[in-house]
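Consider one such protein record:
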Amino acid sequence: MRTSDITASTDENIQASISDPSQNDGDNFHVLDLGRMAEHKGLFPFDYTRKTFYTVTLLHGNYSLEFEEKSIDIEGDTMILTSSKIPFGIHPKGATAGISCVFKEDFITKNNSGYRLLEFPIYKPGQQNIYSLTDEQAKQFIGIYTKIFDENIANSAYKVSLQRTYLLELIFNAQKLDPVNSYIKKNTTTEEIACSFIRLLESQFPIDAPQDFVKLKTASDFAEHLFLHPNYLNRQVKLSKGRTVSEIISARIEQEAKILLKLTNWNIAQIAYSLGFEEPSHFNSFFKKHTKVSPSDYRKLKTD
């Protein structure tokens, strides 16, 4: 059985039950027929950097995968597990098929499943797993996806719980895949931790509206999110990047502040709060320390 067998054999009701991400953006869980999306839209980049989406995706055929600064050509049956920390693009080449479960972190929590998503090794920050599958492995995963499709159609009172259970079944079985078959070479521990920190930092930007705000502001905030001790995180980042965590955070906040001052008409207080400062005066002091001018003076310089 191939990936294409599921979507090729489904009737119109099943096709209608497959989610279009543009119509279900507020939900925590989607099932996507990637072959159908490619047929109608040509490209379907998984651009979830502003959200908290994770995926378990099964592809059949020839694809070009793009993430960070890398591009990988794949063929046959391939399993992909991604997180929101990395912008990810999937580009079909010729006749292709694919199935994807796309979900938010809140879909799998201690309270509703007994598991926390980031406790799974395949979803810890810094991981990016792409596996080439045998025919037998592909058949096993297709069987699980079929159960998820069935629940989408049935729409029973237990739909969400059952789909969560089947999603966990996908994740558990994906974790059993042989790492030797992964397309992605792992970085050293130091590089992996530093990259995880940078991805997490960048996931908070750009700030598109005054009501958006930076949540992770200190080394301790990032360390807690990455399940690391702050001193250990700082040491690894310094070894890899040559700067401390605080220095990198400050530089990124300064960069975003300059962008907002130059390109928006938000007042100084709005910018200060969106960047995580409790008081506008704190932002003024920070900005002047790093740029030698106040936010107001910088804005005037850029508009004169």
